[in-house]
């Protein structure tokens, strides 16, 4: 009995093996050419679907993360940032801190590589299947303040609240009023012991009090953030300054 390819494709589609359905003709042709055994063929079909699902999942996670640009940890040059050791970088990359829901605070002046590192770690986490969200402090405060009225803020905050890793870039870039600080506290409290947070800042936690204003709220925020945290101090060597383009020839 000859079985039409269309019928097989239809069955695969009903089983929601959509990618395999699309590729079935090629896979079968290849199997005939190579005289695959039944087992080899089944392995090939199922592996194909699984691989496609992985790829789609990573693409979706990347889309959700909203990184401002993509730079990997491999592209981070340790010889240009000597305050980070090879071992520290490896530990960041291995993500056991994320599984244990530790937070990371990356401190250092502008150009020290904070945002690059945070994105690199985020990409690594996505490769391992974690949900990641990247947001600047400014955007985060804006969204929290407007959540009630702005649909896009609602959607994004919903994701942020259930993410495995939240990257807040440039914390305390601007001074916050009490209402804003309150919103931030509620978010940090919600994520506490459920997710990891990476914060980048050019101000040290001691200086955060001045910027947040209200001492009670600052203490409450710091309490949660610093409970399980790794603080990494990047030094003054501004990569940006060294590699800036110049219109002068020295
Ligand atoms: P920060 O967030 O600390 O102000 P960035 O991470 O934005 O600094 O770094 C500024 C630019 O310099 C980015 O393009 C980044 O990729 C690059 N950069 C900084 N440090 C390094 C480094 N050690 N190796 C490679 N590129 C770096
Ligand atoms: Mg930055």
Descriptive overview:
The radius of gyration is 24 Å and the shape is elongated. The protein has a five-stranded parallel sheet with strand order 2-3-4-1-5. The longest helix has 28 residues, at 38-65. The protein starts with a helix and ends in an 8-residue tail after the last helix. The mean pLDDT is 90. Helices cover 56% and strands 10% of the residues. The chain is an alpha/beta fold. It has two domains: 5-64, no CATH class; 73-233, P-loop containing nucleotide triphosphate hydrolases (Rossmann fold, 3-Layer(aba) Sandwich).
Output the keywords.
250 residues; alpha/beta; Rossmann fold; five-stranded parallel sheet; 12 helices; binds adenosine-5'-diphosphate
Summed up:
The chain is α/β, with parallel strands linked by helices and about 250 residues long.
Helical residues, percent: 55-70%
CATH class of the largest domain: Alpha Beta
Q: How confident is the prediction overall: mean pLDDT?
A: 90
> Helix and strand string, N-terminal first?
HHHHHEHEHHEHEHHEH
Q: What does the radius of gyration come to? A: 24 Å
> From the 3D coordinates, which CATH architecture of the largest domain would you assign?
3-Layer(aba) Sandwich
Strand percentage lies at: 5-15%
- CATH domain fold name of the largest domain: Rossmann fold
